[in-house]
Amino acid sequence: MKISYSWLQQFLQVDLEPEKAGELLTDLGLEVEGIETKESIKGSLEGVVVGKVITCSQHPNADRLKVTTVDLGLKDTVQIVCGAPNVAAGQKVPVATVGTTLYDDKGEGFKIKKGKIRGEVSLGMICAEDELGLGSGHNGIMVLDESLKVGTPAAEVFNITTDYVFEIGLTPNRSDAMSHFGVARDLRAGLMQQDIKLELISPSVSDFHVDERTLRFDVEVDDKELAPRYCGITITDIEVKDSPEWIQNRLKAIGLTPKNNVVDITNYVMHELGQPLHAFDAQKIKGNKILVKTLEEGTKFTTLDDVERELSSEDIMICDADANPLCIGGVFGGVKSGVTEHTTSIFLESAYFNPVSIRKTAKRHGLNTDASFRFERGIDINLTKYALKRAALLIEEFGGGKMASDISDFYPEKIEDFQVFLSYENAYRLIGQEIPKETIKNILASLEIKINSETAGGLGLTIPSYRTDVQREADIIEEILRVYGYNNIKFSHKLNTSISFDSNKETKVENTIANQLSALGFNETMANSLTKPEYAALSENINEEANVEMLNPLSNDLKVMRQSLLFSGLESIGYNINRKNSALQFFEFGKTYHKFGEKYEENKHLTLFVTGNRTQESWNVATKVSDFFYLKGVVSSLLERLNLSNVKTSPSKQDIFSEGISFNLGKTKLVDFGVLKRSILKDFGIKQEVLFADFNWGEILKLAGNKKVKVLDLPKFPSVKRDLALLLDNKTEFKEIYNLAFQSERKLLKDVALFDVYQGNKLPDGKKSYAVSFLLQDETKTLADKQIDKIMQKLQQTFEKSLNAVLR
C-alpha cells in the first residue's frame, strides 16, 4: 500500500524527516518496505528558467527556424535557434539551459547541449508545454506572464512539488490503516509516546447542505446481512472535466491514473479515509430506484473492463428498479452505468458490505480492486455517511454540482462498539514485564480506546468501530505493546529449550536416505502443496477431475492441491536456472492429494531432480553432464540402501518422460525415472535436459528393511579379471548377461560389470556391442590359467546359445 507523506501531513502537521517517520511507522507495526521520492514533474524542471526574447530574426539557412537572443538574467544574452511559429521578441518564455535534462512522457531523459543548427550556434532550448511535462500542447512555445522576473527558476513559476511515498507492507488485520487518515492516526499515537503531541485534523463536512430536492432515488436492500449499511445521494448540474492539479498529483504519487473529477474524487476519498465509493450516471438508472440484492445464478453482466461475467446467486449486486444490474457491489462497476464526459447528474454510493461475501465474490470473478481490498478486510461502518458527505462536497466544489436529495441511509441495526476488560496481571504476563499503569492508560487514549471503568485489577474498555481486529483482551495487550515499543521490552539472554527424540521408523528411514542424498551432492527442497490447476493438463496421467480445490484460495496460482511433485520442482529448477545456477540436484519428500468421488487420498513420494553438469569446471577435471545412467545409479544405490533387491525393470508408463523406466518389486512399482519431455520443460522456460525420479515412498516404507552389515576378512588369494566384447541384438539388456553369467558360474564368479557400449555405422543393423568384465576369485587357492580359460569358454558358449551373441 502506498502512502503519500505530504498527504499524510494534511491530517498531522508533523515535520519529521521521511526516514524517521518511516522508522516510527515500522515500529508501530506498519512496516515501511521502501521510501520513494515523487516529483510532480520528473526532474523538477531543474535548469529551466524564465527568459526574455530580446531579438528574433529569420534563420539564414532554414525557412522554418528563427535565431533569437534571450536574456536569462546573466551578464550576457545567449543565442538560441527556435522552430516554434509563435516565438517573437519581447516574450517571456521558459528556457532549458545547456546541461538541463528534460524527460518525455515515458520518463526517458535527453540532455540539452551546446550545438549548431543549420550553421547557427544554439545555447539552450525555448520550450513548449509538452517538452516540460506540463501538458500535451506542441503548437508553439509557452508564453509566460510578463510580470515574471528574468532568471526565475521554472519550478517556482509552475509550483513543482516533491513528495515522499511510503510503501507499507500492510498485514491483513490492520484494516484501520488502509487510508492516509488511518496511518496518520497511528503515527500520532507513536509520537505521543515520544511526548510529541499533535492534533489529528479530519476534513470538515460542516458545510454540507441540500441545495434543492429535485432528484431522489429510493433505496431498497433485500438482505441486511449482506449490506448492513447503505448510503446514497444524488448530485445534479455536474460538469465532468479534469480534476484540480493537486488531486491529480496526489493520485499520481500513489500510482493512480487520473480520469475525471468525479471518478478521481471517489478514489481520492477512498485513499484519504478508507471508505470506497461509487458514482453512477443517474440518467442510466431506471425507475429512480436502487435495489441492493442478489440475482439468479448465471446472470450475464459486463463490467467496466468490457468483460462479460456470469454472476453467482451469492454476489451482491446494485440494480435499478427493473432489477437490471449496474454494479457488482463492493467490487467493480458496470460498463453501462459509469460516469462519462456526457454525465450531468450522478447517484453517489457509500456502503458497508459483508467482508466475507465481498472476498468470495472478488475471488470468484478474479477481481482484486482497491474497493474489494478494503471491503473484504472490514471498514469502519460509522464512516460511511461521513465519507459520502466529504466526497459530495468535493464534487460540488470541483464539478459545479448541486445536492439534489437528502442522504438515503439504510442502517436498520446499529453495530455497537466492542466492550473488553483488560486485566493488568494478564498484560504484565503476556508482555513479559510490568509497564506503569499510567503509561497503559495514555497508550489506550492515544489509540482512541475509551476507558469506561477502572478497578485495582484492570480497565473496562470500549473499542472504536474502525478497529475490527481488536475484540479480545490479548488484542488490547498487543496494541499496548506495539505502541509502547517492542524494542523497549527487556529480555533474557538465556534460551531454554528441550531436545526431542523421534523414534519413528519412517522418520529414521527418511533421514537415512536424506543423508545419503546429501552426501551425493543433493539439496533438499520443500515446495508448497498448493499449485496451479493448469498443470494437470501437462500430463495425461493426471486427472483434472481428481484435483482437490480450495474453497477460498489465496490466488489462482494456489487454487488446488498438487497431484504431482514434478511441477513445483520444475518451478524451482527454472527459478535457479534464470539466476545462472544451472548445475542442480534436488530431492523432496512430500505428499500428493487426490479426490475420487467423495473419497480423498494422500500419497507419500520422494522425488529427485538432476540437471546440468555433475562436476564444476576445472583445469584438471573434464566437465561431465549428468545423464540417464547417473540418475539410474543414484536410484539403484537408494534401493540398495533400503535393502530392496531383485527389482525388475520395465518401460515407464508415465507420459512425462521421453525416455523412462520403472523399477518394480513383484507387482509393486517402486520408482519411475528418466528424461523429462522438452514439451513439459518449455512451460517452465527450461531449455536444458532435466532428469526426474518419482519414488512411491508410501509403498517403499512398507517394504524397506534394515540391511545388516556383514564384515569379512580380506581375501588371501588374488582375483582375476577377464573381458569379453560381445555383439548383441539391440533388445538385449545387460541384466540378461548378468543373470546368465551367475547361472553359469555360481562358485568363482564374484562380479560382472558393463564398461562400454557401442552403437554405430560399423555394426550390422539392429546390433550393438557390449564390453563386459568378469571378476573371478577362489577364496581357498590361486586360480590356474586352465581353470580360468575353462570358465570364460563356458560363459561365451552360454551367451552364444541364449543371446545369439558373437565374440568380436
Summarize the structure.
It contains 20 helices and 41 strands. Strand 3 (about 50-60) and strand 4 form a beta hairpin. Helix 6 crosses helix 7 (about 260-275), helix 11 packs across helix 13 and helix 12 crosses helix 13 (about 475-485).
Q: What features would you describe in this structure?
A:
It is a single chain. The chain is α+β, with helices and mostly antiparallel strands. It contains 20 helices and 41 strands. The chain has a seven-stranded mixed sheet with strand order 28-32-33-37-36-35-34, sandwiched between helices. Strands 5-4-3-6-11 form a five-stranded antiparallel sheet, with no helix packed on it. A five-stranded mixed sheet has the order 13-16-19-20-21, with no helix packed on it. β35 (657-665) and β36 (668-676) form a beta hairpin. α6 crosses α7.
SSE layout:
Blueprint: E1 2-4, H1 5-11, H2 18-27, E2 31-39, E3 48-58, E4 66-71, E5 78-82, E6 92-96, E7 101-103, E8 109-111, E9 115-117, E10 120-122, E11 125-126, H3 129-132, H4 154-157, E12 162-169, H5 180-192, E13 218-221, E14 229-236, H6 245-253, H7 261-273, E15 277-281, E16 289-293, E17 300-302, E18 308-310, E19 317-319, E20 325-328, E21 332-333, E22 346-352, H8 355-365, H9 370-375, H10 384-399, E23 402-403, E24 408-410, E25 418-423, H11 424-431, H12 437-446, E26 450-454, E27 458-463, H13 473-484, H14 505-519, E28 523-524, E29 530-531, E30 548-549, E31 560-561, H15 566-577, E32 584-596, E33 599-611, H16 628-641, E34 648-651, E35 657-665, E36 668-676, H17 678-682, E37 690-696, H18 697-703, E38 720-729, H19 734-744, E39 749-758, E40 767-776, H20 785-803, E41 806-807
Parallel strand pairs: 13-16, 28-32
Antiparallel strand pairs: 1-12, 2-12, 3-4, 3-6, 4-5, 6-11, 7-8, 9-10, 14-22, 14-23, 14-24, 15-22, 16-19, 17-18, 19-20, 20-21, 25-27, 26-27, 29-31, 30-31, 32-33, 33-37, 34-35, 35-36, 36-37, 38-40, 38-41, 39-40
